[in-house]
Amino acid sequence: MKLLDRSKSTDFAAALAAAGYRVAAPVSDGGLVRIKEWAPGAEIAASEMPLNSMKDFLFPRTEVIGRWTLEGDGFASQDVRPDAPKTAVLFAKPCDAAALAVLDAVFNWDCKDCFYNAKRDAAAVAVLACGSADEHCFCTSVGGSPGEAHGADLLFRPADGGLRMIVEPLTAKGKALADAAGSALSEGQAQADPIARPAERFDPGKASAWLASNFESPLWKELSLPCLGCGACAYACPACHCFDIQDEGSRSESVRCRNWDSCGFGLFTLHAGGHNPRADQSARWRQRMMHKFSYFPQRFGRLACTGCGRCARLCQAGMDIARACARISPRENA
Amino acid sequence: MTDNLYQPTTLRIADSRDEAPDVRTFRLEFTDSGYRSEFFRRYRVGMFGLYGLPGAGESVFCVASPPTRTDHIECTFRKAGRVTSALQDREIGQTISFRGPYGNSFPVDSWKGRDLLFIAGGIALPPLRSVIWNILDRRADFGKVAIVYGARTVADLVYKQELAEWGGRIPTAYGGGTSSGYPSVGRLPTANGGGTSSGYPSVGRKDVDLTLTVDPGGETPDWKGKIAFVPTALKESAPSSENCTAVVCGPPIMIKLTMPVLRGLGFEPKDIYTTLENRMKCGVGKCGRCNAGGVYVCKDGPVFTLEQFQSLPQGDL
After folding, report:
1. Probe site for chain A from B77, B255, B279 (most A CB atoms < 10 A)
2. Is the pLDDT of residue A109 over 80?
C-alpha cells in the first residue's frame, strides 16, 4: 500500500506545488489552524479541525463576477473569467468533502454557475479520516462518518498510531495527486488506526419532520435568544452558500463582486420599501435551521449540514445547532 | 456569448416618463440583437429582470411591457435606494445594464375564454400591466376584463394616461394632460396589424371595466373615483367570480386583506394569482436570498396561485 509518513506532509505539499498545484492545507497561523494556501516553511497541522472550511477555495468570500470600464456616460463590459488554478486541497475533513455535494447541487441545479464549477473542476480534494473528534463534532448525526470520503478524490487513513497515513486514491484526480507526490510517498505496510466515533446527538429525520410543521413554534424565540446575528456560523460553514452581489467602482472602472452573505443578517431580506419579512433575529435563525434541515432536503434530497460543528465552536454566544436539533427531535431513550 | 450567468447585456433608454413622485418608466431598446431575440423567445408575462448600472448595482423589477410588443421593453420603478437613484439619473439615449427574463409567468393561455379581474395597489400595477396589455392585445380570446386599482393618493397612481384610456373616461384632471404620453399610437408598432385595439391605447376603450380608488385622505377636490382602501373598493364593486380568474398584486398588507374579500366573492384559491417581490440578488436560484419555505421566489415564482401562496410560511413574505 502507498504510505505517507506524517513527517513528510510538507514534502508532499512541496511536491504538489512543484508539479504546478496551488496547495491548500490546514496550516498553523498565529496560534490558530486555518485551511489556507500552503507556502514553503508553513507548518501543516494535518489532523487539526481548521477554523475555516475548504469551501473558501471553491466559493471564495469575495469574487469578481463582472468588470466594466466607465467612459463618460457609458460603460463597456470586460471579459471576466473564473480564477481557477489547478488546486490540491490536502488533509480536508470528511465533513468538508461531504459538503461539496451541497455546493454542487446549488451551483448546478437549473443553470450552472461557471465561477464555482471552474474551481470545482480544477480542485483535487484529499481527505484525512478523523482519528479524533471533539464535543462539537456531530457528523454521525447527519448521515456522515469520520472515516468516509464522499466527495473526495483521495483518502488518507491515519495509521501506526498517527505516525503515517495510508494513501488511497479514489478518482483520476486523486491518482494524479499520488503520482505527483514522488518520493514523498513510499510503498509498505501499516496498521490503520481506529476512526473517531462522535456520539449521535439527534435523528435528522425527526428534526426535519418537526421543522416542517413548526414554523410558528414559540420555541424559536427561546432557541435563538442568544444569537447576536454576527454571521460567523455561516462564514465558517462548509455548506452555507448564500451570497450578496455588490458593485465597487472608481471613476474609470467598476467591478461587480459576489460576497458571502448570511440569512442571520438583518439586511439580508430587507426590501427597498422598508418591509423586512424576517424582522427579528428569531425569524433569521429559524431560516438557518429551516433551510439546512427542511427546505434544502425538500428540494435537493440532502441535508445542508454535514456536522462539522464549526458554528458551535465559533459562536461567542454559545449557540449550538446540534443541541437545537436534539431539542426538537429527542431520541427515544434521551 | 458568455457562460457567465451574471453577465448583463446593455439596453438603451429610448423614452422616459415620470408616472408619480419618484416613479419613472423607461422604454428600453436592446443594443444586442442576439440578446433581444433570445429575450423574446423566452419572455412571458410575469417574468422579471435585473436592471442595473455598473458601479451602482442591480435591482429587480418586473418587465412591465407585454411580449406582444417586441421592439422594446419597459420597466417602471420607484427611486428607493442607491441603484434606483442611479438609474433615475440616466437620461434618454444613455444605457443601462439588464439580464433576464427570469422567473415563471402567468398562465395566460389557460385563461382563454375566462373573465379576468386585476387588482393592484400603488407601485404594484406595473407587474400586472404587462398581463393586462397582453390580454388586450389578444382581446378576443378572453371574456370581460375588470381592473380595480388604488393608491394612497391621486398623485401616486401610476400610468395615469393609460388609466384614463382603459377607463374610457378620466375620473379627475390628473394635471399631467397627455404630456406623459404613454404612448401615442403613432410611434408604436402593433402586434396584429394596427388599429387602436392593438396599440397601446389612444382613446377610451369600452372593453375594460376600470375602478379607481384612493385611500381616504388621498383624494383631491376634483377626484371622481372611489375613496376607499383597495379591499373595500373591491368588495363594493363585487365582481362575479363565475368563470373568472383574479390577479392580485400589491403591498403585503393589501394582499393579505384582499384575499378574504376574493374568497368571500366565491373565488377559489386556484383561480387567484399573485406575484411576489422578495428581495433578490442573483435571480437564478443561487444566492438564497429570496428563499421562503421550500421555494426560491426567483425560480418557482414570482407568480403563485393563492393555493401555492398559502402553503408558504406567511412570516417569511
Report:
1. B279
2. yes
